[in-house]
TrEMBL record:
Keywords: Dioxygenase, Iron, Metal-binding, Oxidoreductase. The lineage of its organism: Eukaryota, Metazoa, Chordata, Craniata, Vertebrata. PANTHER family: 2-OXOGLUTARATE AND IRON-DEPENDENT OXYGENASE DOMAIN-CONTAINING PROTEIN 3, PROLYL HYDROXYLASE-RELATED. GO terms for molecular function: dioxygenase activity; iron ion binding; L-ascorbic acid binding; oxidoreductase activity, acting on paired donors, with incorporation or reduction of molecular oxygen. Its cofactor is L-ascorbate. Pfam families: 2OG-FeII_Oxy_3. Residues 140-242 form the Fe2OG dioxygenase domain. One of its GO terms (cellular component) is membrane. This is OGFD3 protein. The keyword Repressor does not apply. The gene is Ogfod3. InterPro entries: OGFOD3, Oxoglu/Fe-dep_dioxygenase_dom, Pro_4_hyd_alph, Pro_4_hyd_alph_FE2OG_OXY. Transmembrane segments: none annotated.
Amino acid sequence: DGVTEVLAHRSDNLRDKFIEIPCSEDYDSHRRFAGCTPRKCGRGVTDAVITREEAERIRRIAERGLSLGGSDGGASILDLHSGALSLGKHFVNLYRYFGDKIQEIFTEEDFALYRDVRQRIQQRIAQVFGISSSAMYLTKPTFFSRMNSTGAKTTHDEYWHPHVDKVTYGSFDYTSLLYLSDYSKDFGGGRFVFMDADSNKTVEPRAGRVSFFTSGSENLHRVEKVQWGTRFAITISFTCDPEHGIEDPLL
């Protein structure tokens, strides 16, 4: 892998760490939205937006939802917006599949916390990149992920390949990850890796840590394979294009 630098250790308590990098040309092939489309690009990490206790409560939402299904392979997805839930080698729609039973699994408080956390992350991204929070829209996919060391059964389980979010999902302009478990305590491997020309820069997950970045090729990245334990996170993605916006989930 060449040179690897750690951008954020699990033991660090980072208020605001931000590294500016030149924007790629990816945004030029999409419609630009004044006051939102990235002109300043980069990546940031903060432990000061979401508390560990809130992260634990959010993780319990993920655990309850994923207990209804789960992939046969190493990566399981729960999307409260679309209802997508990994089940075996496929996906089902949680809301259609379980119907009114959903009320026994999630509460209004769960969804209120989810919305609040999402809003705080959105505001922090807007502040750091100098854009208006109201010009950003939540976009899909925004989802919980649970990763373990089980071998891949489908391509969905192969989460470790390098990729660029803007190339994979054209709507993405800003990507964030809220980690819900601790590297080296809850799981081994599973670090987030930015792949730069000169070196790799890693983020070690810890519960409550938010990592965020502009979604273009300036932030090519991958996740290491999880070696042991279980890694929980939520990917929260934003677009500048209102046509690609999605609503917060409602119970």
